[in-house]
Amino acid sequence: MSLLQRARANVREDLDAAMRRDPAAQNRVDVAVNSPGLHAIWAYRAAHALWVKGPTYRPVARALSTLTRAATGVEIHPGARIGRRFFIDHGMGVVVGATAVVGDDVMLYHGVTLGGRSLQRGVKRHPTLGDRVIVGAGARVLGDIEVGADAQIGANSVVVKDVPAGAVATGIPARVRMPATPDEDPYDRLYAEPAIFI
After folding, report:
1. Do the Cβ atoms of 40 and 72 come closer than 8 Å?
2. For residues 74 and 177, what is the distance between their CA atoms, to the nearest angstrom?
3. For position 197, what pLDDT does the model report?
4. What pLDDT, in 10s, does the model give residues 136-188?
5. Rg of the chain in Å (alpha carbons)
6. Strand order in the sheet with 128-129
7. Which residues does residue 26 pair with via DSSP β-bridges, in sequence order?
8. What CA dihedral angle connects 61, 64, 65 and 67, to 10 degrees?
9. How many CB atoms lie within 10 A of CB 172?
10. At the top level of its lineage, which domain of life is listed (predicted)?
11. How much is the pTM?
């Protein structure tokens, strides 16, 4: 598969992910034109490709991320590592730090910060999110912590400790709750933990 074919397939995959997660989306064209979260993701992917090429390309990668922040309100450091089918709903105010690692099928709402808690250089300072994690509006996930696959972070929560796979974390500081049963429906989880509403 050529680079162009791969890029086209990735764009289509991102558009399909947005269509699945955004009930207001009318069609792929609507999402492609009007989703600042998707625009930020696409620009990040280009900036990251430059970043991994090495120090010579990093100033260009940073400039692209700065322009993207100005255009979309989303700041993703080109050094972050982000998986497939990532989606940012609304976008405005999202910050993803340089050493953040984000799995596949992750969704962030507006105002989310994946930030650091240390000023030390050359170390991992930002969180790692597993696959299918959902982070609610205004949440802060801070430090070199791990949020396990299928976890949910409630709106406006502040998470500074690891969150196990499948757990719900809400509050300031976040309190972790495991599902009542292994097959608990995600919608039932919303009613058991109202702070997760986003």
Report:
1. yes
2. 30
3. 56
4. 999 999 999 999 999 999 999 999 999 999 999 999 999 998 877 767 665 56
5. 17
6. 81-82, 101-102, 128-129, 146-147
7. none
8. 160
9. 13
10. Bacteria
11. 0.89
Parse the chain into domains and list their residue ranges. 3-196
158 φ/ψ angles, rounded to the nearest 5 degrees:
-120, 115
HEC profile of the chain: CCHHHHHHHHHHHHHHHHHHHCCCCCCHHHHHHHCHHHHHHHHHHHHHHHHCCCCCCHHHHHHHHHHHHHHHCCEECCCCEECCCCEECCCCCCEECCCCEECCCCEECCCCEEECCCCCCCCCCCCEECCCCEECCCCEEECCCEECCCCEECCCCEECCCECCCCEEECCCCEEECCCCCCCCHHHHHHHCHHHCC
What's domain 3-196's architecture? 3 Solenoid (2.160)
Q: At which residue do the structure tokens 């099928």 appear?
A: 105
142's tokens: 């801070």
How many residues does this entry show for the chain? Answer: 198
